[in-house]
Structures are given as structure tokens and as C-alpha cells.
Amino acid sequence: MPHILVVDDEEAISDLIVMNLNMVGFTCSQAFNGQEALEAMNQTEIDLCLLDVMLPGKDGFQLIDKFKETNIPVIYLTAKSSLTDRVKGLNLGAEDYIVKPFETLELIARIKVVLRRNGKGQKNFRLKNVEVSLTERTVVKNNLQVELAAQEFALLEVLIQNQNLALTREQLLEAAWGYDYFGETRTVDMHIQRLRKKLDWEDVIKTVYKYGYRLEAPKG
To answer: Where is the OmpR/PhoB-type domain positioned along the sequence (predicted)?
Structure first.
């Protein structure tokens, strides 16, 4: 999985971001000011940087050129919410601009969009005797192809992209079916049961009591 540098001077926020990214399989480094960010960039192979704007020393706007020089994509993650700051950040070359506070699922989704855009996204997922190609949209179990309906694969992809995170039925509906889908949440239950049966994943796709579902996978 890709390695992400989290640059934020608020340690509690940084730790929370790293914890959530580790949960879905990313590895992370942390920096708490501009100088530490530059040092980390030179010491570790980084696939993406989450960069705060308001930092001690050099701020995030001043740092972005250094990341661009080494082709490290940047997502600004900041409390600076004005339109002027957003436009400035994007004009400086950031791939995205996310304002705090943010939803973890949205952050993960945006990270993965940027990684795919830069050719660094996750292409395959393997667990037990199942291998999923996220680019070719194929599933193989015990060296035999498993036929999934388009919506079943869409749901599987959301579970993989958010592995180890508990997702509500409503979140799964929104992510896998889209904002315009008005079906009942029991639709999710039906598709989960089909995935479990087809992949023999009864012990992998866990039911979270009175909440939703979680795909359990090794971390890191």
C-alpha cells in the first residue's frame, strides 16, 4: 500500500489521521512543522502528502514547491476555509483541498482518487484464497473466476477501500449505489449475503451489531 506523509502541527489530529489510515492499510510518517516535513521527504519514499497550511516555520503554501519538485502529490488538509485560500492552494498545484473538520470516509476516498490519478493507487487485493483486481474488476477464488454483478463488485470495492472500518448501511448505500439511490438499507444486507456466499467470506465481512458491516483484513 502507498506511504503517506501527514504534516500537521496538532499532534492529536495527526495521530487520529494516521490511526485511520493505518486501519485501511496505508503506512504513514508524521511531521509537525515545515522543517520536519522537508526532512521526512528526503528520508522516506512518499506517495502522497497530507499538508496543513498553518505550520510553524514555513507554512504549507510555501512548502508545496518542494513536493512538486519530487512529484509527490499534495492534498491540503486545513482549517483555512475561505474561497481565497482554496483557490490559492489549488493554483499552487495541490491535487485537492479539504477543510477541517472532515469525515474520515471522505478523506480516504479523496486520497485514493489522487493516488489513482497519479498511478499510485491500490490495484489488487488478496485475502485468503481470493484475489480482487480493482483495475480489471475481476475476482478469482481458488484460481477460478467468480462472477459478480456490477453492484456486487461496487459494494465489494467500497468494503476493500475502507477495510477494517465499520460502515453503516447508509454509508454503504451512498458509496456503492450513489447519492441518487433511494432504496432501503435491506438492499445492502442482501448484497452482503451474496458476497459472503460467493467468496466464502462469512468470517471476513463482519456484521457490526445495530450499525452495519466491516471487512476485516490484515493491517499494513
So the answer is: 122-217
Claim: this prediction has a pTM higher than 0.85? no
Rounded mean pLDDT, 53-60: 92
- What Cα–Cα distance (Å) separates residue 26 from each residue in 2, 144, 215? 6, 29, 15
Identify the CATH number of the domain in which residue 138 sits. 1.10.10.10
Asked whether residue 179 carries a pLDDT value surpassing 70, the answer given is no
Final residue in a domain of this structure, among 68, 89, 117? 117
Residue 115's region, left for phi above 0, alpha for psi from -120 to 50, else beta, is alpha
Please state the domain count of the chain: 2
Quickly count: other Cβ atoms within 10 Å of residue 189's Cβ: 15
pLDDT of residue 42: 86
Which of 62, 97, 117 is the endpoint of a domain?
Answer: 117
Cell of 198: 460467493
Among 91, 87, 45, smallest CA distance to 65 is for: 91
How far, in Å, CA of 193 to CA of 127, rounded? 18
> Which single residue is written with the C-alpha cell 477541517?
100
